[in-house]
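User: Here's a structure from my thesis project, written as structure tokens. My advisor, Dr. K., wants to see whether a designed sequence matches the one we expressed. Can you design one independently, without my sequence as a hint?
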């Protein structure tokens, strides 16, 4: 947290006697950020560590899955999951399902035909 934000939050709480929610709305931060700032008396709290994206368990099998989906788009997720499990995949079924969902979604092409009312009437 930047020291300017911390000091603004502290001033609004101590001098203007605003509630945590009111401070959060005025400053444009989450209520938990305000709470962290108010709990830190000596200075701005250090930022929380961000989640670092690590290597996925599925990473080694992504190429195989893409190839199988390209060759056989109708293959079920269960079948692909079992195939990569036999190859040593130790992750979950849900991870495989979430990975394959956007690969299978392809826009369906269609031609929209609009006719004038009565133009293709079967009655003569």
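Assistant: Designed independently from the structure alone:
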């Amino acid at each position: 947290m930047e020291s300017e934000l911390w000091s603004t939050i502290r001033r609004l709480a101590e001098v203007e006697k605003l509630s945590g929610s009111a401070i959060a709305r005025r400053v444009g931060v989450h209520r938990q950020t305000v709470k962290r700032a108010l709990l830190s008396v000596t200075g701005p709290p250090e930022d929380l560590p961000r989640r670092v994206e690590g290597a996925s368990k599925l990473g080694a099998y992504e190429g195989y899955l893409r190839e199988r989906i390209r060759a056989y788009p109708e293959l079920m997720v269960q079948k692909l999951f079992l195939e990569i499990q036999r190859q040593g995949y130790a992750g979950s079924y849900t991870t495989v399902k979430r990975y394959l969902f956007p690969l299978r979604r392809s826009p369906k092409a269609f031609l929209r035909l609009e006719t004038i009312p009565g133009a293709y009437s079967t009655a003569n």
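When you compare it with your expressed construct, this may help: The chain is about 50% helix and 0% strand.
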